[in-house]
Amino acid sequence: MVSRKLTERGQNADNETTNKAPRTQQAQRKKGESYGSWMRDLHHYYLGPLSIIASMPTFFLLIFHTNRQFHGSIAALVQHFEDVGLWTGYKEMWSTVSFFNPLAIAIVLGYCLFTLTLQVLVPGPKVTGTRTPTGHLPEYKDNGFRCYLITMAGLGLLTFYLKRNFGLSTTIVYDIFGDIFGFLLLFGSVFAVLLYVKGHVAPSGTDTCFTGYRIYDFYVGTELYPKIFGVDVKVFTNCRFGMTVWPMLVVIYTIKSYEMFGFVDSMWVSSILQLAYITKFFWWEAGYYRSIDIILDGAGFMICWGCLVAIPNLYCAVSLYLSYQNIHLGPILSAAILCLGLASLGLNYYADWERQKVRASDGNCILMGKKPDFIRAKYTLENGETKSALLLASGMWGIARHFNYIPELVLALSWTIPALTTNLLPYVYFVFLNVLLAHRATRDEEKCSIKYGTYWEEYTKRVPYKMLPGVF
Question: Rounded to whole angstroms, how far apart are CA atoms 327 and 173?
């Protein structure tokens, strides 16, 4: 459809020439623009999403395979592929996982049932997200921190019970994680298809994300706030599954490390920093409902499949690596890394707190000893209603428009440094996070520029840098 429309546009430009005269420079330019637009659409709506959908299962399996089979050595993996051949190595890699291990299926579906029950039954105050262009104001039950505490306490009790009564351990998850990952690949893909169909057949509201390009719609999602039987889908995939499975795996990998080697300071330093960050996330979960993941990204393959499949693998790669490395840092280096990570976490939390304080008080507060500097930006909804928002240009937000990402990156580096530099694989999440946050900042800038117009232009003049002063 896109190709046909753009071809017709190019033909119309050619037909504007008179009396079979040679094309004018203007007509040539229009034809060039038409071709360029067609290529951009082809990449954006077809090739880009399709390549990501097709390659991500292999990419994430490659991370796990390198971690478990080659002790995190990318060089050893490459050498193995050279020895046996690319196709043979590829088949060997996929043969190490099963899609239908009954125990793996029971663990995944059992946890889903458990966390869905908590999501529905655990009480919490009502909070609101960001009003959509259609005027819809999403509501949430702020019970994330309670669900997180119950889940982590439940994991501790289950570990104690199994060990004491049956001589078993929750580290069985470590032992069969390849099969768990295999089932998650299948489960996440089926779930993404169901969400795509649901968006067409039974959307939850008016906040849909249809573009008319089927592959792209499947990739980004067809709904912004879908619900199934009253359960918010993105709260389940992003928070109750992805962000809760992450700390559970960190704890399980730490227990496995202790079972094999006893106390290993590198493992504990990394685990403490990750758990501190995730605890902060759930303490602040109501603020996450106003983040770009929720207010801009649809519930599709990118977000939901990513949270179901990528987080348990990619985000936990450093913990899996450390679980069998037995790396000792010593008390001084351990303390230094802990202090750096906790200081970064505190700075990240303080930046979020600044913005929440200013918005909650409508700017009538004191920030760093003085009245905050902000712009009261107006914007218009699709129904013509005018709203306003505060664009903070003080404190951490006066340094850069997304300065809060910098301490988050430093924190991620802090819980990765205990792996030292023997192998690069443990740093895959840190590299991914750099790309993710830079891309997120750019997307957020585009959204705000469209939403706030001249107010955003004024804001970028007051705060000229996106993330890091003098650099970006």
Answer: 22
